[in-house]
């Protein structure tokens, strides 16, 4: 709430008052005459809410300060550190960098802010790498809103003669180091998988690297409801975690065995997260599986709404702009929906047949996730994938096999330069995977397209879904009243 109010209302100047009121309410809740009375219990909760609200406002204000760009649009000298791999565009090279030095009169205003510059394509720009330092003259201007949401304060074009690569050692950065290691593995992967389409799919599945994916292929994944497969998220982490857990199963299920297993697996999970670039969905998945793993050590049921809430709280505390990230919203909507609805859907059908049970579990999880992401999918992508169940049945088992083979092939590449038989199998499965995507994409009525809804309708859709679910769970007609009111409101709104 604090992040949203600050983002859309700029209430930072009132922070001190929220904080004082919150502290006052908390202190009052401990007063002897109040603490013993049930009717005053809300004081502590309200006071604590106001304190956290203030934290959200402050965190968002600090983020907005990093995104501000008040420099006059004149040409200045800048020194920047490349924080991501240079990305070729049709006529330019896109460079994402952090400004680490500039002219004395503006250094305080630009230091440590992120910028995007575009360089002409030539031999020098093609040789740039992540972690390089650039000196350039340029006219940087304030970024458009969609770039600001990615924390980039400014952007601009730099002429060929106005920049040079600076020969100096880069300052150590964990994120840059992780991306450099990822590039090392991607180069290894490219040697194992020479076919361009197969390699781009493998890079997306294994490392979340989607820059090499063909635009039409991305659209095909979106059309059949398989976009979550390309974004490294909970699905990938659960597969990797299960893989490691299986290989360490010889340690047993005792308290000591669980401690050892989880102590070994957790660093590997976060290592995998670093290699994928630490996107919001990756951080969410890694933090949630870590919380679950710690609970698993002590025989607690760790995967609950509280697990999700803790993960979201600390992510937003460190990076408030995640709240406006599409990946963050879709990821948390899906996982909240799975926690709320999956167990009820699973109970609708029970069988002892393992194959049928696996297919039903996959179906129930897919339905549960779709309930949570449907309004957001309509708002952002204007379409409903109809074949998402078939997509998950066919592709998720293949993703499990592919992740295992990709890890296995990368490890073997250190021992033998070319494991021909394994590489052939891997390439065949990747080609088969792409042929399934192509087949599903060409099915008639694979999706309903061009559905336009507003942000108001998106919010009302979630209220309707919640009310309908509560009606079925609680069997009380009271929960249908908001649905009737919303439907009547929308009818009047559109008719007038």
Task: Give a quick set of tags describing it.
496 residues; two-stranded antiparallel sheet; 8-stranded mixed β-sheet; globular; 21 helices; alpha+beta
Basic shape: globular
**Would you identify the regions where 5 or more consecutive residues have pLDDT less than 50?**
none
- Main sheet attributes: strand count, strand direction, barrel closure: 8 strands, mixed
Mean pLDDT: 82
Instruction: Please give the count of helices.
Output: 21
Distance from first to last alpha carbon:
32 Å
Using only C-alpha atoms, the radius of gyration works out to: 26 Å
Helix share bin: 55-70%
**How does the helix and strand content classify structurally?**
alpha+beta
Which percent band covers the strand fraction? Answer: 5-15%
How many extended strands? Answer: 10
Structural write-up:
- With 496 residues, the protein is of the alpha+beta class.
- It is 62% helix and 10% strand.
- It contains 21 helices and ten strands.
- The strands form two sheets. Strands 1, 2, 3, 4, 5, 6, 7 and 8 form an eight-stranded mixed sheet that branches. Strands 9-10 form a two-stranded antiparallel ribbon.
- Strand 2 and strand 3 form a beta hairpin.
- Helix 12 (234-247) crosses helix 13.
- The radius of gyration is 26 Å and the shape is globular.
- It starts with a helix and ends with a helix.
- The model has no long low-confidence stretch (mean pLDDT 82).
SSE inventory with pairings:
Blueprint (H helix, E strand, L loop, with lengths): L1 H8 L5 H15 L2 H4 L6 H26 L8 E7 L4 E2 L3 E11 L4 H4 L3 E7 L2 H4 L6 E6 L2 E2 L2 H4 L3 E6 L5 E4 L7 H19 L3 H12 L7 H9 L3 H4 L3 H14 L7 H21 L4 H18 L7 H14 L7 H21 L7 H28 L1 E3 L2 H25 L7 H22 L5 E3 L5 H20 L6 H15 L1
Parallel strand pairs: 4-7
Antiparallel strand pairs: 1-3, 1-5, 2-3, 3-4, 5-8, 6-7, 9-10
